[in-house]
Amino acid sequence: MNTVELLIGGQSRPASTEARFERRNPVSGEVVTRAAAASLQDADDAVAAAAAAFPAWAALAPGKRRALLLKAADIMDRRAPEFVAAGVAEAGSMPIWYGFNAMLGANMLREAAGLVTQISGEVIPSDVEGCLAMAVRQPVGVVLGIAPWNAPVILGTRAVAVPLACGNTVVLKSSELTPALHRLIGDVFQEAGFPPGVVNVISNDPADAPAMV
Fold first, then answer.
1. Residue pair 122/161 in contact by the 8 Å Cβ criterion
2. Is pLDDT of 206 > 80?
3. For the sheet containing 20-24, what is the strand order?
4. What is the pLDDT of residues 1-18, one digit of tens each?
5. What's the CATH code, domain 2-212?
6. Domain segments of the chain: what residues?
């Protein structure tokens, strides 16, 4: 059985209330995950950690962001068996589906890595004689990604990959049905060496979902 903690500011930690919820295998009914049930304070802490990490991450050279994303892609490929095992246990589909998820998720990270030097502004015609208007694209800050269970690695990775490439920091709210699987995405970024707070992952009890979002 997986015990899943929150990932906040680069640290694994239980919910501030110590609350947990269980995820059962939909086929066997066996409890397969006991996950931290984040409180609103935990959600605020995750946002604060991402906000604190944002200035340095936004200022990081694009090539360094690209290198970290490419490293994360390689790690996701290597850890595909873990994604498969967690997916089968929590969501009950076939192993080949979660293998495909991990493969496509890794490739999404590679695609995002290729975008870091393609972010550009534009020159806009101006009615003021002798003047040019310019649009400059800048990272906005903390981005929330909410991922569903049905294509969990694909959609969880998609929720954060491009925001990270563009210099934003992220909070990924996992599906209540696949908390261990979505926390694995956070583990990939941790192993790749992303700075603390750049990627945060929170899980919540299904009963708390309306308040959390």
1. no
2. yes
3. 2-4, 31-36, 20-24
4. 789 999 999 999 999 999
5. 3.40.605.10
6. 2-212
